[in-house]
Amino acid sequence: MKQLLHTITTALLAIMLTATSALAGQVNLSAAASMKDALNEITAAYEATHPDTTFRKNYAASGALAGQIEQGAPADLFISANVKWMEYLKKQRLVELSSVRTFAFNELVFAGTTAKKVTGMNDLPKLGKIGIGSPKSVPAGEYAMQAIVKSGLQQKLAGKLIMAKDVRESLMYAELGEVDGSFVYRTDALLAQQAKILFVVPGKLYPQISYPMALTVTGAKKTNAKSFYAWLKGNEAQTILKKYGFSVK
């Protein structure tokens, strides 16, 4: 009996040590949905040369991610699609202030499958349905709404806007033809199979689209998270970002 208990105890300890070791090398990455494809390749490239590190990735609207982090969800590194939600977490003291920096830049476009001639903002009122990320939590939607307001189209487009939970869902609406077109990032539109870029939204209509990144207060204490954060600033990561249509400085 004692021998059996000893064997069971030893086995349990081995399992616990293995699990602890795995968690120690795990980096919890919370990033804007528009970064999904680029970051999947970036993390794969990192894992290829850092086999001791694994990733738990969470892609969603930046506002939703910020809310999750505020509620205590596991996150070591946060990459937002706008400055607003990073500033929010800074005020909550949930990110390491010294680690906040710009990761990449993007631009807003209007993409769809409609046969109607759409070459600029002033052509939008003749469309039926228009996809847009919810401005309350989706940066792409917030940028798009600012462009709509500055173009004086808010009233003309009332009732035409179909809200999406994130920019990828907005693109899906356009891909499936559920809307005539959607406001999405250029990087998302380049991945589309059916929808095509109908026009680039003039940059003067919305703030510069930048993606700030930062270690959370938890991630700043983890060696693996800090190493990956440092690697993200290097040439290999930036080359992959450019491949997916992002710009870096």
UniProtKB/TrEMBL annotation:
Keywords of this entry: Metal-binding, Molybdenum, Signal
GO molecular function: metal ion binding; molybdate ion binding; tungstate binding
Name of one Pfam family that matches: SBP_bac_11
InterPro entries: ModA, ModA/WtpA
Residue positions binding molybdate: S34, S62, A140, V167, Y185
Signal peptide: 1-24
Keyword Signal: yes
A GO BP annotation: molybdate ion transport
PANTHER family registered for this protein in UniProt: MOLYBDATE-BINDING PERIPLASMIC PROTEIN, SULFATE-BINDING PROTEIN
Family of this protein: Belongs to the bacterial solute-binding protein ModA family.
Subunit architecture: The complex is composed of two ATP-binding proteins (ModC), two transmembrane proteins (ModB) and a solute-binding protein (ModA).
Protein name: Molybdenum ABC transporter, periplasmic molybdate-binding protein
